[in-house]
Design a protein that fits this description.
The protein is an alpha+beta fold and about 525 residues long. The protein has 14 helices and 14 strands.
């Protein structure tokens, strides 16, 4: 490509130089013609102002014709003119380089009769000449004839040919400078394109576009000024971007939030979880450094919504399995106790023990059914109660709890209640007794109120403004199952439902969530 560019520019420069040289030569020839015509005019005026010439033409005395011819011939030879022709007012030639034409009339009128100097290139009897014609006057100033002086064009051509080599050398130097500049530009382009040819660049661009828009990961490149330079189809889909965001600033196309913070940052980020209204994304941000200078960042994003839903479902199944294992373990211990009493023959005490352990499980189940009619919520709380028993935590259902069989916003209710209880369990990890979590769910015709309190250390005032931010956590590694996402999901669910969330001052941590019921449900209850 660089060779083609160099050759093309060299051809352009050569043709341009040749055309320029031709135009310059034509202009120089025109200037020389004008210069020689002016010289001829100066000779003609000087000859016309000569007193002997004026007297001979005016009075035509004896010997004047020979005198005029001699003066014209001598002067023309001395000044390098081709001819000096004197014509009287009757248009009769009085002098001429061809003696046969002396005494004959010219066919054209005397143009100098108007008193002006007339210049032209004349193709006459002696050839092509630079010609000047001036008026001839007597001593009183009366017009008595015309003086015509010509300088051969061969003289003009010879002078031009003598000057052209110098002009040609200038153009050759300019051509060499242009060729050197073109070669430098071609070399620079070759370095800038990493030695790739045009078809290779086009193929790379096609491959890049096919790869960029064919992968299932979102890719966005941000230049150092904060403008989007590259965005593929998957990123447009995941972030709900418009089709014409390239070249626009990130702040102009995204609302404030975790996504915009990830795109506007400059440090490296690995596997950061970000939740939008529609997707659960995993972001990676890599700064681009070229030649020791920053060139923006590249952000990739993966849609983990389905995987995260499966993970949460698996976590629920694992929690259920752990609960079943804990119950099986506890059941085994109790069976062993009963078997021991029976082996000792203490049947009455064994029967009393059976009634006692039956009452504990029945009391919890009966208490939940007495306050809560929704099977989804009962199942959730039974599982949490089993987990609490295994972790040495007392899960208490507040006596004020009231919830119908088909509560409004049951999905939001399960999300909020489950995450708040998990957060409370994690907060009690490593604390001393009493380790208690109190749950209250109250359904009214207008709203559902959820309150979860724990006896843990509470929330420090300095971290309270950040607890609902995605990825923020104060829990040790390995304690939280969805580190930094539980309270964020609660806050997002409450915001989408149009509810409110309040954080109590303690002791311990206290969260109160209010979820408004949908208008249709409120209307049905009112009717």
């Amino acid at each position: 490509m660089s060779s083609q560019i160099f050759l093309a520019q060299l051809v352009i420069l050569t043709v341009s130089s040749a055309v320029g040289f031709g135009l310059f030569a034509a202009t120089a020839r025109e200037n020389l013609d004008q210069e020689f015509q002016a010289r001829a005019a100066s000779i003609a005026q000087t000859f016309a102002e000569s007193p002997p010439v004026q007297d001979c033409v005016a009075h035509r005395g004896d010997g004047c014709d020979a005198t005029l011819q001699q003066l014209a011939t001598t002067t023309a030879s001395r000044v390098g003119a081709a001819y000096i022709v004197v014509i009287d007012q009757d248009r009769v030639r009085l002098t001429h380089p061809d003696p046969n034409l002396i005494g004959q009339q010219v066919t054209e009128p005397l143009v100098a009769a108007d008193g002006q100097v007339h210049l032209r290139v004349d193709n006459g009897a002696v050839g092509v000449t630079a010609n000047a014609r001036v008026p001839l006057r007597d001593s009183t100033g009366a017009f008595i004839g015309e003086v015509s002086v010509g300088i051969r064009e061969e003289s003009v051509t010879q002078l031009l040919l003598a000057q052209l080599p110098t002009y040609g050398a200038w153009f050759a130097v300019a051509l060499l400078i242009g060729a050197a500049a073109s070669f430098g530009l071609a070399s620079l382009l070759k370095r800038r394109t990493f030695g790739l040819e045009l078809d290779e660049i086009a193929r790379l661009l096609q491959e890049r576009e096919a790869t960029l828009h064919g992968i299932r990961e979102g890719v966005i490149a941000i230049d150092p000024s904060g403008r989007i330079s590259v965005v593929n189809d998957e990123a447009t889909h995941l972030l709900r971007l418009a089709d014409n965001v390239q070249g626009r600033r990130v702040e102009d196309v995204l609302v404030p939030g975790a996504i915009r913070d990830a795109l506007t940052g400059t440090s490296a980020v690995a596997d950061a979880s970000v939740v939008t209204d529609d997707f659960w994304l995993v972001l990676n941000r890599m700064p681009v450094i070229l030649g020791g200078r920053p060139h923006g960042v590249v952000v990739t994003m993966q849609d983990r919504t389905a995987l995260e839903a499966l993970s949460r479902e698996l976590a629920g199944e694992r929690s259920f399995t752990e609960s079943m294992r804990a119950q099986q373990h506890e059941f085994t211990n109790r069976i062993q106790g009963i078997a021991g009493l029976l082996e000792l023959g203490r049947v009455d005490e064994a029967l009393e023990y059976v009634h006692e352990i039956r009452g504990v499980g029945a009391d919890l189940d009966q208490s939940l059914r007495a306050h809560i009619a929704s099977p989804q919520v009962i199942g959730l709380l039974l599982g949490k109660a089993a987990e609490a028993g295994e972790r040495g935590i007392e899960l208490v259902i507040d006596p004020e709890t009231r919830l119908g069989e088909t509560p409004d916003r049951v999905h939001a209710l399960i999300t909020v209640l489950g995450n708040l209880i998990d957060n409370a369990f994690d907060a009690l990890q490593g604390t001393r007794a009493p380790r208690r979590v109190i749950v209250r769910v109250l359904e009214t015709p207008e709203e559902i109120e959820i309150e979860v309190d724990d006896s843990g250390p509470g929330i420090p005032p300095e971290v309270a403004p950040h607890i609902f931010r995605s990825g923020f956590t104060t829990k040790p590694t390995g304690v939280a199952r969805h580190s930094g996402l539980g309270l964020f999901l609660v806050a997002r669910t409450v915001e989408q439902a149009g509810g409110t969330i309040e954080v109590g001052d303690g002791p311990g941590a206290s969260f109160t969530v209010t979820l408004p019921r949908t208008p249709a449900t409120v209307g049905e209850d009112a009717s």
